[in-house]
């Protein structure tokens, strides 16, 4: 069965009606979720929003579009099609049939991985809940709400696994996912990046480009898992995640494009007076969100991740395309490290360096966005260029957490960092200026002056379509 059953109280394609106990447990969790959504979800009142809803888990035509009141959005549980012949592709169980149940010896580790992934999903909704009040266009407002409802569905995906496979402890963890809140002093979200505020739309674009891209890579490693329900869940989540990254990629595109236009129209780099965001400020926001997202990959070395890989719980990005033995017992990798107090590299066992392997895949992907943003500047005839800062810059996790470094990778003293960090990270003045531009534009076909309109609308609709009906 691939098409979700929308006749059910909880839309699903996992045969929920055939397991009455599980169905009742999830239906008892559903009101708590809706209460969380009403309390911690988007604050801007709307009548309805032009949203996509999953109707299949395969190929083309997997979603339908239509105006839906957000509180009536049909959050559900969708797994990609099961491959009955699927085998484990890596680790000590390589070649064995994929697991349909949780092996007892890996129960705690799998539960922890699912909880951490699940905790990020509602966190981003909480971080973005006030952005509707300053949306630069109805098109952008619609994209914000689409991201929000799909992050809510991704929470459902992890909650289903916790309820279905982890018994009472899983149900308790599912409840806790609604009790932690982004930025809370008493019960914050598990990962640091998901306790940062997202106070403006430049931050939102950077978050959906950099931090949601981290999500892509984390989901990609879980998609390789020997635990087949987790693999199939993540496979479908990646389909939805692509839209979130598109919002970030094209959002930054449009900010850079508008800034370049204003620079050319007024023959100046000082575009703040003309209501655009200066390129140095864009670079500062890039520096912050990129470095915070790098921390989400953990330390450069990790015995836990090595154990996850050997056990078959979490693979590498595109594991089956790798040209090695998929066990890595005798392989080595160079990882970033402090060598004799200096920023450098050291050789470690490949299994221990899997976080570095994944982070480097991510860095290469991030570089693609910077390349396209620089193409916008080049096409405008401007000499300025954006860049990714050095991997040691502004790090709070891993080998470089205890030092300070410039975006060029120069090791700095604490005093030098304090004196110069305002050149590289958003200052209070920068943040206040960016927020001053965040005036809402809710008229069809209109857009704020600090960002260019998109080249294409949603699902073939024009930019001036009525994407959102406000209350």
From TrEMBL:
Which UniProt keywords are present, listed alphabetically?
Answer: Oxidoreductase
The protein's Enzyme Commission number: 1.14.13.208
Tell me where the transmembrane regions lie: none
GO cellular component assignments: cytosol
- Output one GO MF annotation: oxidoreductase activity
- Keyword Transcription attributed: no
Give the highest taxon in the source lineage: Bacteria
Class of this enzyme: oxidoreductase
Q: Biological process GO terms, please?
A: phenylacetate catabolic process
Gene3D superfamilies cross-referenced by the UniProt entry: Ribonucleotide Reductase, subunit A (1.10.620.20)
* Xref: InterPro entries: Aromatic_CoA_ox/epox, Benzoyl_CoA_Oase_BoxB, Ferritin-like_SF, RNR-like
* Protein's UniProt name: Benzoyl-CoA 2,3-epoxidase subunit BoxB
Which organism encodes this protein? Trebonia kvetii
Gene encoding the protein:
boxB
